[in-house]
Amino acid sequence: MPKVSVDIPQELLDDLNAHVGVDKKFISQADAIRTAIRKLLNMMDDVDRRHGRLKE
Questions:
Q1: Quick check: helix, strand or coil at residue 54?
Q2: Tell me, what DSSP letter sits at residue 23?
Q3: What are phi and psi of 20, to 5 degrees?
Q4: What does the pLDDT average to over 16-36?
Q5: What's phi and psi for 35, nearest 5 deg?
Q6: Which of 19, 18, 22, 11 has the alpha carbon at shortest distance from 35?
Q7: Integer distance in angstroms from the first to the last C-alpha of the chain?
Q8: 32: closest CA among 10, 22, 17?
Q9: pLDDT (tens digit per residue) in 31-45
Q10: Could you give the CA distance from residue 20 to residue 31 in angstroms, rounded to a whole number?
């Protein structure tokens, strides 16, 4: 799996980490970020579909 490095503001990282760990929503930062990217891309596909910009 390819690796990607990003710089993010500390406030965003703190918010992310509040949801990562044992008995929380995500098992790791990577899991949380992958989930967020998938969700964003799905939302963008929905917008493109509504505007006729997405070919099925």
A1: coil
A2: T
A3: -115, 135
A4: 95
A5: -65, -45
A6: 19
A7: 27
A8: 17
A9: 999 999 999 999 999
A10: 9
